[in-house]
Amino acid sequence: MPLGLVPLDVLRERVNGWYAQAGRDLPWREPGCSPWGILLSEVMAQQTPLSRVEPIWRDWMRRWPTPGSLAAAAPGDAVRAWGRLGYPRRALRLHEAATVIVERHGGAVPRTPAELLDLPGVGAYTAAAVACFAFGIPEVVVDTNVRRVLARTLQGKALPEATLTRAETELAASAMPAERHTARAARDEANTWNVAVMELGALVCMARGPRCGECPVADLCAWNVSGRPAHEGPPRRGQAWHGTDRQVRGEILRRLRDEHRALPLTALEGAGPERVQVMRCLDSLVADGLVEPLSRKRFRLPA
Fold first, then answer.
1. CA proximity to 137, closest of 175, 190, 98, 214
2. CATH number of the domain encompassing residue 127
3. 40-74, pLDDT tens digit by residue?
4. For residue 73, what are the CA distances in angstroms to 79, 108, 229?
């Protein structure tokens, strides 16, 4: 189908209908989920599969059901409860965000994207997603899944650009539902579209092995109709893990989490294949605020 001729109304109707039947039953999508729970889910889900997020999210919501309850805990408790979700600085940023919410917003998650952007660790995507999914504000929500679905269906490209461009943001805005009969109807339709197209990218229109046979808009998709041409840009390579500083940092944190106490340096030196790498990673964890040195030879999670 030529670019620009994809009927957006039909596209949205089918994707939204598919989502109503096939969307995952996730706790932060339930009508009674608090804005705080939605903010947690969005931060935890950054570069992390939702199957890994859900048990940690449930644990955090049991421990810290409000921003105030997390702000009252030690930062190290947040790092410990983060488990192995990866990118543990997100746990510290959430603790900092909870503190700001208490101090500046009376303990309530702010509603507007501008206020949300002022929270530690909250970028443009997260601010838009929380405003949309927690407060019903029809913001343009653009994550990797949305970018891939729109690149394929509307532009006929196998993959989007390596990083988000202004053109992609404008494309996502143009795909949003226009105003309908009432402001509420327009808002509800826009917010459903945001989560539905995101879910389609996660479950069907995947980067590798897309399930075009299960796609509700396969006959409208410019990429599929044109024969699914190969990606023309530079090859996409996954991030290495084994033997990297990320792995060693994670192992240092695991040892500190599991022991629930300060550890001597000797208990951390085996976290990587070479001592010089372990010391480099330990120094970086201290610099990031994820590890607190009690002396040159004793370390713990931040109190």
1. 190
2. 1.10.340.30
3. 999 999 989 899 999 999 999 999 999 999 999 99
4. 11, 17, 52
Beta bridge partners of 295: 298
- Extract the tokens encoding 91: 């746990």
Q: Which residues pair with 298 in a beta bridge?
A: 264, 295
Residue 262 sits in a domain whose CATH number is 1.10.10.10
93 pLDDT more than 70: yes
For the chain, what percent of residues have pLDDT higher than 90? 80
Compute CA 145 distance to the chain's CA centroid, rounded to the nearest angstrom: 11
22 confidence band (pLDDT: 50, 70, 90): very high
Question: Minimal CA–CA distance to 136: which of 109, 108, 171, 111?
Answer: 111
Helices (H), 25-110: 35-44, 50-63, 67-71, 75-82, 89-105
Is 42 a catalytic site residue?
Answer: yes
Which structure tokens are listed for 137? 């504000």
The structural domain count of the chain equals 3
pLDDT band at 259 (very low <50, low <70, confident <90, very high): confident
Whether residue 73 contacts residue 95, with contact meaning beta carbons closer than 8 Å, is answered with yes
**Cross-strand partners of 300:** 292
Residue 201 lies in domain? 8-22+142-180+191-225
In which element (H, E) is residue 285 found? helix 275-287
Which residue from 113, 138, 111 is spatially nearest to 195, judged by alpha carbons?
138
Domain assignment present for 237:
no
Contact between 167 and 151 under an 8 Å Cβ cutoff? The reply is no
**What span, in angstroms and rounded, lies between the C-alpha atoms of 6 and 11?**
8
Contact in structure between 290 and 268 (CB atoms under 8 Å): no
pLDDT at residue 287 greater than cutoff 80:
yes
Catalytic residue, chosen from 13, 30, 42, 251, is: 42
